[in-house]
């Protein structure tokens, strides 16, 4: 494998409840067709709407691929925009999953912090994508919903020291097509990678400056 390539994992969820076709997985499959360019090694994974599956799958993704970025995508029946989630929450998981299960502790990581923020500047990503003329509305949120979306996001943030992202999409046709959502994910993830690159350059420059000035 090309060592200069960056590994990016994007997950979508399987069917649940009224979402017999989960818009998040449709969007992720459209993204896979579009790709993220030759410099990115993109892997897409469908995640079942089950707490215990998430608890085993998410750590294995980080261990197996050592990705630069993991972006989880979920559907929100209330959303009318593509929504960038800033943080994941540890407590408050009372909703039963597809196997009629919910954690006894009602939390993701026993003893973990209440909330973990992504290191990615979602406000900046939102502004840049919104200004790009994509034709898809993008917004930012601090509440991923205390169900499998939030549970997955927190777990991933905890494992990656914040190097994860979560994107909520509206159901297909309300108002966007699967292709629209795929194009939005492509633009968003490219901006996230760009933001990561800029932050790493700043850290590197700061480190060099401190070395030369000491």
Automatic annotation (TrEMBL):
InterPro entries in the record: Peptidase_C15, Peptidase_C15-like, Peptidase_C15-like_sf, PGPEP1_Cys_AS, PGPEP1_Glu_AS
Main location: cytoplasm
GO CC annotation, single: cytosol
Gene Ontology MF term list: pyroglutamyl-peptidase activity
Class in the EC hierarchy, top level: hydrolase
Compartment(s): Cytoplasm
The entry's keywords: Cytoplasm, Hydrolase, Protease, Thiol protease
GO BP terms: proteolysis
Reactions catalysed according to its record: Release of an N-terminal pyroglutamyl group from a polypeptide, the second amino acid generally not being Pro
Residue numbers annotated as active site: 85, 149
Entry EC no(s): 3.4.19.3
Subunit details: Monomer.
Similarity annotation: Belongs to the peptidase C15 family.
Protein task: Removes 5-oxoproline from various penultimate amino acid residues except L-proline.
Name of the protein in its database record: Pyroglutamyl-peptidase I
Organism name: Gadus morhua (Atlantic cod)
Biological classification of the source: Eukaryota, Metazoa, Chordata, Craniata, Vertebrata
